[in-house]
Write a sequence for this structure.
């Protein structure tokens, strides 16, 4: 059955053959996006067009519900490229705050990557998410985030185009010596106004 499509200038024309990609009139648009935005969108859906449409529909549904807020960012658990074909699993720290046996390493901008204990892999991460999901209160943003995350991990595990490896990271923590802490305490005491 012929369908209507629109070109880049908004002109309508009718085509025969394959139906519209989204099941409704479409328009070809060329856009330039920052590389990290493209990576984020591909983390939501391999097809950039579908990822953008999904975000728009989520935002529209949220506005229809009357709060006008942006869609919750915790649903954007993603694989972020760090060079060559390697990626890190990135989570939103506003909702994924704690996982047993998993270090959540902040990157800034409300995001963090995950570091597992030595010898652990994707199956252990999936178990940690399930364990945390099981003790999280129903109806909370954290529980919704964990539910999305466990489904995302399942999809990644079943994706034959992905192969997961465990790599060790080194984290240097700067600590203050007892002498430095004592001096800081004395400095604060001297700054206190006399009563």
């Amino acid at each position: 059955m012929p369908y209507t499509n629109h070109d880049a200038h908004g002109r309508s024309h009718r085509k025969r053959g394959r139906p519209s990609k989204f099941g409704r009139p479409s328009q070809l648009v060329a856009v330039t996006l920052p590389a990290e935005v493209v990576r984020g969108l591909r983390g939501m859906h391999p097809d950039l067009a579908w990822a953008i449409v999904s975000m728009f529909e989520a935002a529209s549904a949220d506005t229809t519900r009357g709060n006008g807020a942006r869609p919750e960012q915790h649903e954007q658990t993603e694989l972020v490229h760090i060079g060559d074909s390697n990626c890190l699993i990135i989570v939103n720290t506003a909702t994924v705050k704690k996982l047993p046996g998993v270090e959540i390493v902040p990157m800034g901008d409300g995001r963090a990557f995950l570091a597992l204990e030595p010898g652990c892999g994707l199956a252990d991460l999936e178990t940690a998410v399930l364990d945390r999901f099981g003790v999280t209160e129903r109806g909370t943003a954290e529980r919704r985030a964990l539910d999305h995350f466990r489904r995302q991990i399942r999809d990644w595990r079943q994706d034959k185009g992905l192969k997961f490896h465990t790599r060790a990271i080194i984290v240097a923590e700067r600590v203050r010596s007892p002498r430095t802490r004592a001096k800081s305490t004395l400095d604060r005491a001297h700054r206190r106004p006399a009563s």
